Amino acid sequence: MDFTLNCPIPISEYPYITMAHGSGGRLSHQLIDKLFRPIFSDEQLDAGHDGAILPTVSGRMAFTTDSFVVKPVFFPGGNIGDLAVNGTVNDLACCGAKPEYLSVGMILEEGLAMEDLWKIVLTMKQAADLAGVRIVTGDTKVVDHGSGDQIFINTSGVGCVREGVNIDPSACKPGDVVILSGFIGDHGVAIMSAREGLEFQTSIESDSAALNGLVDAILDASLNVSVLRDPTRGGVATTLNEISKSAHAGIVLDETSIPVRPEVMGACEVLGLDPMYIANEGKILVIVPDDDSEKVLRAMQNHPHGKDSVIIGQLTEEHPSVVRMTTSIGSSRIIDMLTGEQLPRIC
Amino acid sequence: MDFTLNCPIPISEYPYITMAHGSGGRLSHQLIDKLFRPIFSDEQLDAGHDGAILPTVSGRMAFTTDSFVVKPVFFPGGNIGDLAVNGTVNDLACCGAKPEYLSVGMILEEGLAMEDLWKIVLTMKQAADLAGVRIVTGDTKVVDHGSGDQIFINTSGVGCVREGVNIDPSACKPGDVVILSGFIGDHGVAIMSAREGLEFQTSIESDSAALNGLVDAILDASLNVSVLRDPTRGGVATTLNEISKSAHAGIVLDETSIPVRPEVMGACEVLGLDPMYIANEGKILVIVPDDDSEKVLRAMQNHPHGKDSVIIGQLTEEHPSVVRMTTSIGSSRIIDMLTGEQLPRIC
To answer: Where are the domains of chain A?
Structure first.
């Protein structure tokens, strides 16, 4: 990201967000007119309504929302801004929809550095452009110092569902194949390494990325995909548990097939964490009938965001609603849903 | 609101929200499956996707977002829950759209009483039912104690824009008439009276209400309405300043026509506030050509949420982009945009 663009609000004069920036008055308008509007410039946003009027649409629409409270706000590989854009883009893509329009709702804490806000906003714009989505409406609130934590961002999104696609976890069947788009645990470990007070540092960066291009490639290869899911909070283990319960099928995984970087594995050992439960922000789990699995896998491997894609398991009739893993030494163990709190405020 | 429905999560066992409720694991699922899903029960929400798939739509869509950080969370006449539903319903209605689908993004602070969350969720459901909108998708995050303030709620909404309606503040013209739907300042004074440490108490309740029914009545009377706007943060004064700037027209108001309850006026005098700048959550400003003003006014007065509607002013060629008020003693003064912070965290 090019942060050399100067902040359009003079930082020497307005170094921090104040309560008046959330009043709806002059400083609120300055923030919107000078900082948000020029960077997110969009004919819908520019109309200055209470909401955006979208061009005429027809068909099934997907609608999704996500709030982001990641701590710290800046971390290796990204910040809360691109995370918030990519997260909602990915949720729409995982509905089988083309992500088109985003809303942005910011809750700023009094005292947030104006320069940090500017960097976050620039990153959001860059992420939106990369993903091909438009930020069309927004809202900003300010809470007093100590009632927030720098910045929380909600993004909601709408997009049209692709013709012929029916993503439905309850529709997947024994024999279907589970494909994972690459290395797991990068985002969680990057966040942990950036948190104050931690004794270790890694070179791992968050995998935060917009996956709509990868999803297009998957659906171009097969419309028989029944599940697209980005394993964020709770990680691959929790996501597969949700799917196995929806499908009333078992899932059996092959531990040796699951890609984990050595640095991530090392950090997990130090911290006592299991990478299967760590959040990812640029990975996708795909479930597809066996017959289509090879062509979907190849399509994924040919996409930059899916080059490390692998088949990691299969749905089974045995042990319905249970996820099991065949370990490297040949034994089998149950992979349960995450219990308690592993990594708070990871996204 | 009937709060006698028992909280489906045993409060004795889980009296407070913990970090684990935001982990994506077991307690997150308990919160969603036991508390949110049964009350917001909806076929879209029930599918358990990353987002909702909406039925086939066609036409222009409105899309809007708003975050709510009101303090205190419970106040005379409502709580953050119905405020969040009504606020987004009103933003959609003010786009000339029929509010149809809402998303709910909650940011909960560790330590929030489970019973308070339950009351808020029940109120949201009741408000959604009253307004005729469906809550179809949601997200919940938990932040550590001291990094939030009990609960923040984002609602985003989509709805189809009514055929033949073109809400566009830049299209209103000198001679057009400004209609206000009732008494101003109730919401702000209700919030202030509920805040700890304030020395006065009033019987004033928040005017929080869904205005989509009133907007339907207005548009049934005339499709020539150019502005529909709910004067929330910054109040009537700031909203009219925004409109006058968009239209490059002046606005002249008649002070004696603007309805303010004596208790609100009294509280404002004690607090040194001007009701023209106080947030409203159940009022609407309408701008309509003079020829249609009488029939729109009558339609408003015949609706329960508009029974106290009055004409408060007119657009002028003189003093473009300036709002002036003719006072009760015959003089004229400029009504500027709100400067600084009048009432923080009012919505």
So the answer is: 19-161, 169-334
User: In angstroms, what separates the C-alpha of B287 from chain A's closest C-alpha?
Assistant: 14
Classify B45 as helix, strand or coil.
helix
Asked if residues B79 and A40 have their Cβ atoms less than 8 Å apart, the reply is no
Within chain A, residue ranges assigned H as helices are: 26-30, 37-39, 43-46, 80-93, 114-131, 186-194, 212-221, 235-247, 262-271, 290-301
Res B344 pLDDT > 90: no
Residues 6 or more apart in contact with residue B308 via CB below 8 angstroms: B181, B182, B183, B259, B301
Count Cβ neighbours within 10 Å for each residue of A51-63 and write b for 16 or more, e otherwise: bbbbeebeebbbb
What burial class does residue A41 get, using C-beta atoms within 10 Å of its C-beta: 0-12 exposed, 13-18 middle, 19+ buried? exposed
Token pair of B270 as six digits: 């004690």
Query: How does B91-112 read in b/e, with b if 16+ C-beta sit within 10 Å?
Result: bbbbbbbbbbbbbbbbbbbbbb
- From the list B266, B285, B282, the residue with the least C-alpha distance to B225 is B285
Nearest CA in chain B to A143: B345
Please answer yes or no on whether A344 and B152 come within 8 Å at the CB atom.
Answer: no
pLDDT bracket for residue B4 (50, 70, 90): low
* Residue where the block lists tokens 């005098």: B269
Task: Say if A1 is an interface residue toward chain B (CB within 8 Å).
Answer: no
Work out the average pLDDT over A187-197: 84
Could you say which residues from 224 to 253 on chain A have a Cβ atom under 8 Å away from some Cβ of chain B? 229-230, 232-235, 238, 242, 246
In sequence order, the 6+-apart residues with CB closer than 8 A to the CB of B330 are none
**Do B169 and A69 make contact, defined as CB atoms within 8 angstroms?**
no
Which ipTM did the prediction report? Answer: 0.94
A residues 252-311 near B, CB within 8 Å?
277, 279
Q: Residue A149 to residues A23, A72, A146, A161, B309: CA-CA distances in angstroms?
A: 19, 9, 7, 35, 42
CATH of domain A19-161: 3.30.1330.10
Closest CA to B191 of B2, B3, B1, B342: B342
Closest Cβ–Cβ partner in B23, B152, B234 for A338:
B23
**Domain B169-334 -> CATH class:** alpha beta
pLDDT number for residue A46: 64
User: Could you count the other beta carbons within 10 Å of the beta carbon of residue A200?
Assistant: 12
Q: Which of B1, B177, B17, B162 shows the shortest CA–CA distance to B79?
A: B1
- pLDDT digit string (tens) for B159-195? 999 999 999 988 999 999 999 999 999 999 999 888 8
CB contact under 8 A, A103 and B143: no
Q: Residue A337: its pLDDT value, please?
A: 85
Residue type, B242: E
Q: What's the count of helices (H) and strands (E) in chain A, helices before strands?
A: 10, 13
CA–CA gap between residue A242 and residue A322 (Å, rounded): 10
